Amino acid sequence: MTNFRALWWIALIFTLFMLYTEWTYFVAQKQQPAQPVVSQSATRLTTAGDVPQAPVSLTASAGDVPATAISQPSIQRVTVTTDVLNIQLDTKGGDLRFASLSAYPVSRSDEVPFTLMSDKSPYLFLAQTGFSAQGSSIAPNHHEVFNVAKTEFSLADGVDELRVPMTWEKDGVKVVKTYIFKRGSYTIGVEYAVTNATEQSWQAAPYYQLVRNTYDPTSSFWLPTYTGGAVYDPVNKFDKIAFDDMKKQAVSKDAAGGWLTMMQHYFLAAFVPNAQDNMHYYSKVLESERYALGMIAPAMTVAAGASVTNMVQLYAGPKLQGDLEALAPGLELTVDYGVLAFMAQPMFWLLEHLSSWVEPFSGLWSWGWAIILLTILLKAMFYKLSEAGYKSMANLRKLAPRLQHLKDNYGHDKMMFQQKMMELYKTEKINPLGGCLPILIQIPVFLALYWVLLEAVELRMTPFMWLDDLSQYDPFFILPILMGLTMVIQQKLNPPPTDPMQEKVMKFLPYIFTLTFLFMPSGLVLYWVVNNSLSILQQWHITRKIEAMDKPEAHHKA
């Protein structure tokens, strides 16, 4: 089998495996029951089981978390509007229960902002914070009701910061929970200020948790992306925690700093504590197929008559790698490139810089041109490696008539046919597998680029030529058809298979791949079309050069 056929067999197996994996995931998603979350008043956590208990090592003493006020109704919603976020807070617990992103519409045809967090069926995704009280201390968990001065907040023009305070007070202890919003930022400060007006020391451990179900509005049969949790700490680094993993074994570990997240395709929410704080990370499986991933900070101790402040950062927005990396070490790993991240990250860096470079000339089309330029650069980088494979195919193509003659004479005896064929290769000094290694070396690079184009939120809603969105499929199927045509042309340049069955399979491959790529993101298909087109030019040039060397006039000139 030639190196080209080996490559396509590898690609076919990879494609079929990907389709099978995504089909099982798609079916599992469809089988998830609808969540019983139907209205604002109905979206209540009705038990205290979702309130974490701080480990003894983080507090002065251990005890049960009081389930105080968990039957109280929600008093009101607080709406917060910034230049990039639309937020709804609930005075019960001060939960963040809704977040939409004004700069990221659902689609070009539907300009409604994309909803990242919600408490409406079938999508549940919340950010909850509170205190795990110890001993006789009284402190608000996320079931307690806070008071607010007003229910509407908006970031005014010319102002860079917006503070939204919510107050809880009981038996001389006052807790002010303040959400801090910055202009142009998806990072939200969550600040606790505790004032102890009693005659005794007060102590409680603040906790921060993300709660969601498995429903993902960004999921697609054609987009094999991860939806679930992850925890990062300086020692163990990035650790994915899938929903099924939470069912099998709860997370329970201590780490200095780090962060936690619930993420999906293109978007995430994450809690980032102070790097010097020793945090306890945990997970819980709650009723109605809800999953909590959270962290408990060291206990806050407030002396009688004193005040203490504590703050963490909550990120709720798109996976913008520059912003994530600036917020916390390792947070950019939520842009999930898998095991090929060490190759994919430099590729994205180059793609981003190419887009910035061509933007003054191409405007909104800059990312499309960046994909084309990056494909050209990669093709140039591997030109010599590809050349070895194409030379091997050109030499095999030159031997096609002689191979056919051997087949006519020895086709009835496969062993003899194989022996004669290998003798011919040896005589002509041709290694039919000579180009396999260069192609195998390139495969990880192309797979890394595949994940770059699949994960980059920058491609979302980005137009190019007739395409409205490079992250969505081509509505006119022009690119998949062009890709199929390039595959047909490549096959014409290759030596014909000696096995009739192989020949039939090879003829069907362009149709199989065309159907496979019909609903793939158009940015990915654009890459394949450009890559195939450049391969055709290179292979045609090499084939013509080798065939010209064998013509009588070429030998005469020599």
Could you walk me through the main structural features you see in this protein, from its secondary elements to its overall organization?
- The chain is of the alpha+beta class.
- The chain folds into two domains: 76-336, Beta-galactosidase, Chain A, domain 5; 343-397 and 429-549, no CATH class.
- The chain is built from 13 helices and 19 strands.
- Strands 1, 2, 3, 4, 5, 6, 10, 13, 16, 17 and 18 form an eleven-stranded mixed β-sheet that branches. Strands 7-8-9-19-15-14-11-12 form an eight-stranded antiparallel β-sheet.
- Helix 5 (366-381) runs parallel beside helix 12 (522-549).
- The two termini are 33 Å apart.
- Mean pLDDT is 80; it is low at 1-10, 17-48, 56-73 and 554-558.
